[in-house]
Automatic annotation (TrEMBL):
PROSITE patterns assigned to the protein according to its UniProt record, in alphabetical order: CYTC (PS51007)
Residues binding heme c 2, per UniProt: 186, 229, 232-233
Pathway(s) per entry: Energy metabolism; oxidative phosphorylation
This protein's UniProt keywords: Cell inner membrane, Cell membrane, Electron transport, Heme, Hydrogen ion transport, Ion transport, Iron, Membrane, Metal-binding, Oxidoreductase, Repeat, Respiratory chain, Transmembrane, Transmembrane helix, Transport
Chain sites annotated for binding heme c 1: 143, 146-147, 274
Function per UniProt: C-type cytochrome. Part of the cbb3-type cytochrome c oxidase complex.
GO molecular function: electron transfer activity; heme binding; iron ion binding; oxidoreductase activity
Family: Belongs to the CcoP / FixP family.
Protein name: Cbb3-type cytochrome c oxidase subunit
Subunit structure as annotated in this protein's UniProt entry: Component of the cbb3-type cytochrome c oxidase.
Residue stretches making up the Cytochrome c domain: 130-210, 217-297
GO BP terms, alphabetized: oxidative phosphorylation; proton transmembrane transport
UniProt xrefs under InterPro entries: CcoP_N, CcoP_N_sf, Cyt_c-like_dom, Cyt_c-like_dom_sf, Cyt_C_IC, Cyt_c_oxidase_cbb3_su3, Cytochrome_c_Oxidase_Subunit
Length: 306
């Protein structure tokens, strides 16, 4: 209910809930007072299957009391727990609060397991078999959905097993990325480059930087137009880790390879996001996970995921 800027919906939900409960009580009371027209044998006159007659008996007393108890329970529940619009209930319970409490309890239980790694350098943690087993589980649970179970990534999701890092591959940089997340923004550059032919020429020039198959004539024409891209990728096309701009000379293509893929990138731009993990993982868990990720491209044979 906190998503609404007006309290109308809170009042509406509260009214519907309470009116529904008291309407049930009113119906129960009315059904007990109402008198049906009956024959002398206490039947209503309705007959089925030849001899099955409907009697005019009152509701069983146990059923009535069970109904009343249910209503009382519902009122007590709504007083203690959220259910009446924005009213939080006497206990102040919420599913978010319960989740956070369970996570905090779990983190406290496993804290001793991580304690011995806190004072170790990432390079040393990467050499500890137990730490790497823990790191692998953390990776599988939190990172593999995007980067793959083998950490090789896919289109739009970086390969973590090579030496190509948009923001740097040192342990500190990896910790920073995991903690705060990253937002990559490649703005549409077609207007700055020039005509549609200029964009294709630049695409071929970019392909030439990594020795990829390209049209050499178009690449020569696109070289002068690459100046619009040099502010981020550098005059030599090797990128800038300070702002996360990719190296265009290494033949590693995060969002697809080829002239058409580059043209689409120049025309449309791209926004990518690596979500922050600081609200999901503890500092100790991030330390172990960062060490594990670092080990994927810095320790021979480290990529042996199960």
């Amino acid at each position: 209910m906190s998503d609404f800027t007006s309290n109308f919906w809170s009042v509406y939900v509260t009214a519907i809930s309470l009116v529904g409960i008291f309407a049930c009580l009113l119906l129960l009371w009315f059904s007990g007072k109402a008198k049906a027209m009956t024959a002398n044998d206490n039947t209503t006159g309705h007959v089925w299957d030849g001899d099955l007659r409907e009697m005019n008996n009152p509701l069983p007393r146990w059923w009535v009391w069970l109904f009343i108890i249910t209503v009382v329970f519902s009122l007590a529940y709504l007083a203690m727990y959220p259910g009446l619009g924005s009213y939080a209930g006497k206990f102040g319970w919420s599913q978010v609060g319960q989740y956070e409490a369970e996570v905090a309890k779990g983190n406290k239980e496993v804290e001793p397991l991580y304690a011995k790694f806190n004072s170790m350098k990432p390079e040393d943690v990467a050499g500890d078999a137990q730490a790497m087993a823990i790191g692998e589980r953390l990776f599988m649970n939190n990172c593999s959905q995007c980067h793959g179970s083998d950490a090789h990534g896919s289109k739009g999701f970086p390969n973590l097993t090579d030496k190509d890092w948009l923001h740097g591959g040192t342990p500190d940089k990896i910790v920073q990325t995991l903690t705060k997340g990253r937002i990559g923004n490649m703005p549409p550059m077609a207007a700055a480059v020039g005509s549609s032919d200029d964009v294709r020429n630049v695409a071929n020039y970019v392909l030439s930087l990594s020795g990829s198959p390209h049209d050499s004539v178009k690449a020569a024409l696109g070289k002068s137009k690459f100046g619009a891209c040099a502010a981020c990728h550098g005059a030599d096309g090797k990128g800038n880790q300070a702002i996360g701009s990719p190296n265009l000379t290494d033949d590693i293509w995060l969002h697809g390879w080829g002239e058409n893929a580059i043209v689409a990138m120049v025309n449309n731009g791209k926004v990518n996001q690596m979500p922050a993990q600081e609200h999901k993982l503890t500092e100790s868990q991030i330390h172990v996970l960062a060490s594990y990720v670092w080990s994927l491209s810095n320790k021979p044979g480290a990529v042996a995921l199960k």
